[in-house]
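F.,

This is the one I mentioned.
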């Protein structure tokens, strides 16, 4: 460990949770993996290293939990997300089946109806809090790009993925290394170490995405890691997509324009990224 790239940054300080992106960049620029001395965990945040970790459960195990503290890991001990194959493969089949397009089809009409009712109420109300009345993770960018989306609904699918890329509603989970792992540049993560696998950082990696800080619905690459990858890739992404599409579709014909009416307030959380208040109005 003596020669390992290290950092004493406070990864979970409020200021870091408020805007983690400069910090991620520093860590990415330091090495493919960096030891965070305050929390005694490793951090991996380059697109290629995160992708490699997510695709290799034999080396990066989920079986010791994927959270960042022992309480969460104990609480989730038997959850799908915290087991490795072969237990995982069997359990996952149940989820895949229940959340398959065939099973989601009948739910679609209900989601559409509720999205329409919600859109009508919003328009009547005029002023609203986008978190309470809309969605927890709708980025401010979408409000800015709204005009473009509402006039060309074929962009909805791209916008949905660009939201998940740029804000990564789940920022960080972790794995435990089952052996010494050479991650390149002479850096070796020791066996038994907990490693933060940062979707949020990978999705902003300038080694992979052009101008990653820019919200761009026309982005060429849509291979973001916001839903994870490999055997634990999000089992609910079909449902998430269905809901997001319904919300956009319901709003497009009714809402010309959104305006922020106050300072958005972040909900600070070690894992997720979202707002607690996003005051807005439909002028
Ligand atoms: C925009 C919304 C969502 C995002 C960004 C998201 C993100 C993720 C990510 C990054 C993982 C990977 C975990 C890992 O690498 O260990 C994951 C797993 C998972 N997600 Fe989602 N998720 C979303 C919505 C949903 C919804 C709506 C459901 C339920 C219907 C869901 C159910 C799951 C399940 C069950 C897993 C565990 C899969 C496994 O371990 O095999 N997710 N999600």
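My design for it:
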């Amino acid at each position: 460990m003596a020669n390992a790239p290290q950092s004493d940054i406070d990864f979970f300080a409020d200021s870091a949770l408020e805007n983690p992106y400069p910090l991620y960049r520093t860590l990415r620029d330091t090495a493919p993996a960096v030891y965070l001395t305050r929390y005694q965990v490793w951090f991996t945040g380059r697109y290629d290293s995160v992708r490699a970790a997510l695709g290799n459960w034999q080396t990066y195990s989920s079986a010791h939990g994927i959270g960042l503290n022992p309480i969460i890991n104990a609480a989730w001990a038997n959850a799908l997300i915290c087991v490795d194959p072969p237990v995982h493969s069997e359990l996952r089949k149940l989820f895949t089946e229940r959340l398959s397009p065939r099973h989601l089809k009948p739910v679609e009409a209900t989601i559409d109806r509720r999205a329409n009712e919600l859109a009508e109420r919003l328009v009547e109300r005029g002023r609203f809090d986008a978190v309470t009345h809309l969605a927890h993770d709708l980025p401010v960018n979408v409000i800015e790009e709204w005009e473009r989306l509402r006039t060309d609904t074929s962009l909805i699918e791209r916008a949905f993925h660009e939201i998940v890329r740029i804000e990564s509603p789940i920022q960080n989970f972790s794995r435990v290394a089952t052996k010494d792992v050479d991650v390149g540049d002479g850096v070796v993560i020791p066996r038994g170490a907990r490693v933060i696998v940062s979707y949020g950082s990978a999705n902003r990696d300038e080694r992979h995405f052009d101008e990653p800080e820019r919200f761009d619905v026309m982005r060429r690459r849509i291979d973001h890691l916001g839903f994870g990858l490999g055997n634990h890739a999000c089992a609910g992404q079909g449902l998430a997509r269905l809901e997001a599409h319904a919300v956009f579709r319901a709003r497009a014909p009714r809402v010309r324009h959104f305006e922020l009416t106050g300072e958005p307030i972040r909900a600070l959380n070690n894992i997720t990224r979202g707002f607690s208040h996003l005051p807005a109005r439909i002028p």
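The first strand starts at residue 6 and ends at 7.

Talk soon.
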